[in-house]
Amino acid sequence: MILFRNFSKAFGAQQAVSDLTLEVARGEAIALLGPNGSGKTTTLKAAAGLLSPTSGSVLIGEPGRPPSDPDARRVISYLPQKVVFPEALTGREVVDFYRKLRRTEASRTMDVLRFASLNGASDRRVGTYSGGMTQRLGLAVAVLPDAPILLLDEPTAALDPDGLCAFYGLVERRRREGHTLLFTSHQLGDVERLADRFALLVGGRLAASLTQRELADRLSQRGLLRLRLDGRRPGLLEKIRPISREAAWAGDELLIPGPAADRPRILDVVREAGAEIRGLAAEEGRLDVLYRELVGAST
């Protein structure tokens, strides 16, 4: 549904994206991650047809067409990072204006206002809205058409818990219906919840692309087993080190980094040593730690 083929974009001497090849399949949700200035927004704008490649190509839909093609534009809905609406209009007037542009039925105005949960503020002027309310209004406009492709730039920025719940529900419903999603986020929880795959951009280049399974495997390798024992058993640490070289004591607690698959063997070693387990906790690897590792390896 979206294909970046050797896509590059430069703004004068500034190279924003370099030689990006990335395909987003029908029904797939991909998160673009990366530090500020890594090319995420440029990539989304290219897919939305708001800027043209310096070299390479971007194709939308099946068969693939340039985003400037009217048939391609009809299958896209785009939410920019910074949402701005005329402050003199009400939320309802904003939605109705965009509804007419997208040629959707009149009932959609009420549907998306209900989704946006503006707490009775739909007939207030946008100039009185908080940042979170403006973001909700932007999401309402983005979901007006039943577009097969959603391009969302930091969609959860400034959303409160109610707004987040509504957004997650919408995206999960659209995904069940086979819609395609390409989004950026600095909220790593969004990535774990919504994305089938994440693509990491660093310095305008694709540094990593991992599926959810590959991500889970990477995180499992970074797990931690915490065992609180009845005391330090002589020689126990040496018996565990062949399984986990970084195992270490912290008081009466044994900290054992490593994949979850190693934990049954470790517990067998502890039992064979005659140690009494008085507490056990298992932690999986954290996405923020892996993210920092990948960024660091690419800079």
Report on the architecture of this protein.
The chain is 35% helix and 27% strand. By secondary structure, the chain is of the alpha/beta class. It folds into three domains: 2-75 and 147-217, P-loop containing nucleotide triphosphate hydrolases (Rossmann fold); 84-142, no CATH class; 223-283, Alpha-Beta Plaits. α3 packs across α4 (107-116) and α4 packs antiparallel against α5 (131-142). The mean pLDDT is 90.
Short description:
This protein has 299 residues and is of the alpha/beta class. The chain is built from eleven helices and 13 strands. It has three domains: 2-75 and 147-217, P-loop containing nucleotide triphosphate hydrolases (Rossmann fold), CATH 3.40.50; 84-142, no CATH class; 223-283, Alpha-Beta Plaits.
Descriptive tags:
elongated; alpha/beta; six-stranded mixed sheet; Alpha-Beta Plaits; 3 domains; four-stranded antiparallel sheet; Rossmann fold; 299 residues
